[in-house]
Amino acid sequence: MDKRYLETAVILARMYGVAETLHPWEFLENEKFIAKIDKWTGEFLRMEDADLLKFFESVWNS
Length: 62
Fold this sequence. Notes:
mainly alpha
């Protein structure tokens, strides 16, 4: 597995976990959670010179 992909996915998952404790998000089953993180990771990695926090805030609020 690509190291950059893995690092990005782990960071997004951790950010999601923090946000989940601060806001009343619905519980996601593992398959849905993994699909969401996979989608976000792919989107982020296709962007050039993107800021991970700004990206997370944009997908989190959508």
